[in-house]
Amino acid sequence: MSEERKPPLPSCVKCAQAICHFGIKEGTPGFCPTVNKEAAIREARGLLDDVEILRAAREASRVEGTGYGRWTRVQEVIEFAKRLDITRVGIAFCIGLRKEAKLFADILEAHGFEVVSVCCKVGGEPKEDLGLEDAEKVIPGVYEAYCNPIAQALILDGEGCGLNVLVGLCVGHDALFIKHAKTLTTVLVTKDRVTGHNPAAALYTSHSYYSRLKNPGK
After folding, report:
1. Which of 103, 105, 182, 215 is the most buried (most CB within 10 A)?
2. What's the number of CA atoms in the CB half-sphere (13 Å) around residue 165?
3. CA distance linking residue 111 with residue 206, whole number of Å
4. Which domain CATH number covers 172?
């Protein structure tokens, strides 16, 4: 007896029409999760029965509708927090972007928020404790503390922040923060030293300057 055929993996990036945006379910491609992942969609809809989750979803859509193409991301974060009546905002930042984090904290405080900020190097523990060799450091031969996003998340949660904002955490460190944070978390700055913290630039130039990204074997 042959195995039951599973639906193809969701692949929304291959959809030429994005018809879900218009509430259309007929004629969708086989990889469309709107039609072949109904259980997950029902589960997600059920989670909106939680008053706080529903409120966050509602206000996120209101911020989108009001500020789309008009507000900077800084302003969107402020408006979202205000609409949720959040008074204390946590900032988890990379030590290399402490200037940007300070500027953002100043803006938040000017809008009446209480700000809690935690640097990625909190704890000051050596990278050797993670099993790294000296040659694997950013600058070999000197003391380097490892980034501690888990501690950042635990500290901000412990201080009762209603919203956490990431400012420049490294790839992987941001993932660990999000995994361990218990409260709402958003991103203000995505670190990319090569593109001036604009990682989409590599996508926009993947047909030219960064074409090598499409040919990893060359």
Report:
1. 105
2. 26
3. 39
4. 3.40.50.2300
Residue 69 lies in a domain: no
Under a CB-based contact definition with an 8 Å cutoff, are residues 145 and 127 in contact?
A: yes
pLDDT per residue as tens digits for the range 65-98? 999 999 999 999 999 999 999 999 999 999 999 9
Is residue 194, in this structure, part of any structural domain at all? yes
Is residue 122 in some structural domain? Answer: yes
pTM, entire model: 0.91
- The residues with which 164 forms a beta bridge, in sequence order, are 90, 185
- The total of other beta-carbon atoms located within 10 Å of residue 193's CB is 8
- DSSP character for 195? G
Give the C-alpha separation, 104 to 97, whole Å. Answer: 11
CB 33 within 8 A of CB 11: no
In a domain, 11, yes or no: no
Q: Are 150 and 125 in contact (CB under 8 A)?
A: no
Per the structure, the complete domain to which residue 97 belongs is given by 86-214
- CA pair distance 152, 123, nearest whole angstrom: 10
SS3 assignment, position 163: strand
- Number of domains the chain contains: 1
* CA end-to-end span of the chain: 44
**192 CB burial (10 A radius; 0-12, 13-18, 19+):** middle
In sequence order, what are the residues at sequence separation of 6 or more whose Cβ sits closer than 8 angstroms to the Cβ of residue 136?
A: 127
pLDDT at position 17, please? Answer: 77
Span 165-180, average pLDDT: 98
